[in-house]
Amino acid sequence: MDFSQGSKFWKFSLTLYKQEAFQQECLSLQETAQCDVNLLLFALFAAYHGHSLTPTEALSVLNLSLEWKQEYILPLRHLRKKLKHLPTAEKNDLTEDLRNSIKHAELLAEKNQQEEYAQAFSELLTTPTISDWTLFTQLAETNLYTLENLENSQCEILIHLAGQTLRDSPL
Question: Collapsing DSSP states into helix, strand and coil, what is residue 141?
Answer without folding.
Answer: helix
